[in-house]
Design brief:
This protein is of the alpha+beta class. The chain has two domains: 2-77 and 160-172, Alpha-D-Glucose-1,6-Bisphosphate, Chain A, domain 4; 79-159. The protein is built from four helices and seven strands, in the order βαββββαββαα. The chain has helices spanning 10-23, 77-110, 128-159, 165-172, and strands spanning 2-6, 27-32, 36-41, 54-63, 66-75, 121-122, 125-126. A five-stranded antiparallel beta sheet has the order 1-5-4-3-2. A two-stranded antiparallel ribbon has the order 6-7. Strand 4 and strand 5 (66-75) form a beta hairpin. Helix 2 runs antiparallel to helix 3. The longest helix is centred in the middle third of the chain and has 34 residues, at 77-110. It is rod-shaped. The model has no long low-confidence stretch (mean pLDDT 94).
Amino acid sequence: MLERTVSSEINRTYKVVKAAFARKDCKITFEKPPQQILIKQGSLWGTTPKTAKKIVEVNLVSVDSETHLTCSSHLSSDWKNITLIGCFLAAVLVGLCLWMSFDISAFILTRKPSFWSWIITRNGNVDLQVGQAFENLTKILAAFLSVIILLEIAITVYVSPRIDRFAEEILNSLSV
């Protein structure tokens, strides 16, 4: 949470804060003049604290002839959900790819029919080249998806504690 006191009355400060966020292409989702503004900023595909989709809440309180600002940000639920669902689906695909790879590999070695053996069998004959290629392809795909999962986790760990950076930049640029 960010806090700042400015030497300006609340109505003027409210207008300046609202205009500052509007200049950065933020969407105001709720406002209660002159005490509160809720803002959406960022993108579902954002991977940095400034670009990740977030909700910014700005509260203003009049203190004598000054205004006390408090500002907090949190990742939007759709950003968190798409990250979580994407990682879950990628993990399911990793499991499926590894299962296919191990199953095909075992079939190539033992020639005992298995769940995925039909993929490399043609007219009752086993195509070892196709089997080897398919086994390698599924291992590469599993490795790629695992890297994507780790990258998504790293992005989330990096972005979450730094989510206030965008609002801090806006508050520091205020001229009131």
